[in-house]
């Protein structure tokens, strides 16, 4: 019976004693099944009789003749163990439903069937035996060589199965897309349109954050570029060149250039500071909505391009899934 979650030392000791008792019974029952199976083989039966006639007669008279009754006694205890474990699982709400226990511990349930054809399934009790010994800390199967080999090939088997299933599913999706059934339309109507406003709001916030962060990190470079742009523009102005020919015109021209540069930099600062305003947020969302609507408008040509992009993406995904990761893991 699985140990329950309790802090009572007396109950913990009782669970330990019960587990040890079941372990001894499982070993005894499996040994008896193995010995009696060998006893039925004529060569071994004759060898046993020749080697120990007295023991042979006692076994034949008291054990083999009453083997079914003895086996029923073992089965009764094992059945009691399953029922007690089931009750404990229900009391602790260990599983999602009360009837899950016999399915989880199927190896114990099958081992309780006393019919002759099912006695070989009693070997499944080895699983229960190892589980109890592992829980009691007497063994650590994870360090066993056989456990490592079994885990390795189970891992390989599961990866191969899941990869084949995934590739088959992707093949089916590609076939649906290549059939030209028009997946883009339903994709837009059922997936994109219901989330349109949320997507537009997200796009607007990202644009605002991107513009604000970019200006904060490159403000000096931006203002330097603005000053240079104003200087180059004024340097090419014929009116400013004529002004420079006048007395004191050079100083006046430099003053105008400085004033225009300061004004332009101030305008840039004010404009980018307004990125956090409600008016700019509304403007960005309106622009995003217009671009979003234009993106959602489809025609047969754009449908075909979209479906081909999806097919190529699925093909790339299939190639990635087809890579045998277990080969790299165990090399």
Highlighted features:
mainly alpha; 16 helices
Task: Describe it.
- This protein is an all-alpha fold and 331 residues long.
- The chain folds into two domains: 9-139; 186-298, no CATH class.
- It contains 16 helices and no strands.
- It has helices at 9-39, 42-51, 53-64, 67-92, 101-104, 106-110, 125-135, 145-178, 184-192, 196-217, 219-235, 238-245, 249-273, 278-296, 300-322, 325-330.
- Helix 1 packs antiparallel against helix 7, helix 10 (196-217) packs across helix 14 (278-296) and helix 11 (219-235) packs antiparallel against helix 13 (249-273).
- The longest helix has 34 residues, at 145-178.
- Mean pLDDT is 76; it is low at 1-7.
Share of residues in strands: under 5%
How is the quaternary structure best described? Answer: single chain
Residues in helices, as a percent range: over 70%
Domains, number: 2
Q: Helix/strand-derived class?
A: mainly alpha
- Uncertain regions: pLDDT < 50 for 5+ in a row? 1-7
Tally of contiguous helical segments: 16
Radius of gyration: 41 Å
Succession of helices and strands: HHHHHHHHHHHHHHHH
Q: How many strand elements? A: 0
Major sheet, described briefly? Answer: none
Estimate the global geometry from the Cα principal axes.
elongated
Distance between the termini: 42 Å
What is the arithmetic mean of pLDDT? 76
Provide a brief overview of the structure:
This protein is an all-alpha fold and 331 residues long. The protein is built from 16 helices and no strands.
């Amino acid at each position: 019976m699985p140990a329950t979650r309790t802090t009572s030392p007396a109950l913990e000791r009782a669970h330990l004693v019960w587990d040890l008792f079941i372990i001894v019974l499982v070993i005894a029952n499996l040994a008896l099944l193995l010995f009696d199976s060998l006893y039925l083989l004529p060569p071994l039966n004759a060898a046993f009789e020749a080697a120990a006639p007295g023991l042979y007669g006692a076994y034949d008279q008291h054990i083999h003749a009453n083997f079914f009754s003895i086996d029923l006694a073992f089965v009764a205890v094992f059945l009691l163990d399953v029922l007690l474990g089931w009750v404990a699982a229900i009391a602790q709400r260990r599983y999602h439903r009360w009837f899950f226990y016999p399915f989880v511990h199927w190896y114990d349930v099958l081992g309780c069937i006393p019919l002759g054809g099912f006695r070989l399934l009693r070997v499944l009790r080895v699983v229960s035996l190892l589980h109890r010994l592992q829980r009691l800390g007497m063994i650590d199967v994870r360090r066993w060589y056989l456990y490592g080999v079994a885990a390795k090939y189970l891992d390989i088997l599961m990866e191969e199965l899941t990869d084949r299933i995934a590739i088959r599913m992707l093949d089916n999706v590609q076939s649906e897309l290549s059939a030209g059934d028009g997946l883009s339309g339903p994709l837009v109507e059922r997936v994109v349109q219901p989330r349109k406003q949320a997507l537009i709001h997200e796009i607007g916030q990202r644009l605002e954050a991107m513009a604000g962060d970019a200006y904060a990190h490159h403000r000096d470079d931006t203002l330097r570029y603005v000053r240079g742009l104003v200087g180059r523009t004024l340097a090419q102005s014929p009116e400013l060149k004529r002004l420079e020919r006048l007395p004191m015109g050079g100083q006046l021209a430099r003053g105008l250039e400085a004033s225009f540069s300061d004004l332009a930099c101030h305008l840039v600062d004010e404009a980018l500071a307004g990125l956090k305003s409600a008016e700019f947020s509304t403007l960005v969302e309106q622009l995003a909505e217009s671009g979003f609507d234009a993106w959602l408008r489809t025609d047969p040509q754009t449908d075909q391009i979209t479906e081909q992009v999806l097919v190529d993406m699925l093909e790339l995904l299939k190639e990635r899934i087809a890579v045998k990761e277990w080969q790299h893991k165990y090399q």
